[in-house]
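Box 3.1 A note on notation
Throughout this textbook, protein chains are presented in two layers. The first layer is the amino acid sequence; the second is a token string describing backbone geometry. Keep the layers aligned when reading.
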Amino acid sequence: LRTLEEPGREMPALLQFQWRLLEETGYAPRLDDDAVTGEPLEESADVLAFRPDAGGFTTDPASIAAPGAWRLRRSTLRRLRELTETEPGDRSASPDPHDPHESQDRQDRSDPHGADTRACRLLASYARHLAGRDLPSIAWAFDSSD
């Protein structure tokens, strides 16, 4: 939380805080296995979705088309995976040059906080889903000026 005081580090700090909160309470999203099928996530899939009711990501076409699925960029999943591989506050993980979706994520490399913001919003929406109600902190953290 101290990192929130550092200008320009608000989103990475908030992302780290949300991830740790979900992780410590046992609600961290599944990042490697398809949350619907239980199989490893298909890394070459063109479409990816988050299923809050299943607690993670899916590449299963029927699950992606189902009501309640949130379509996402692959860079959002990548950023969440980075959180599990690095120490708090570390953004040194580099993009995978063998990732077939790397070219679609160029904008995230030129604006690394874009991936942080999307991942933050995903985790906040997931927390709202888990709580079953609106959370006042979401409006505070994601006001319309960001």
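Helices lie at 10-24, 61-65, 74-85, 106-110, 112-131, 136-141. Strands lie at 48-51, 56-58, 70-72.
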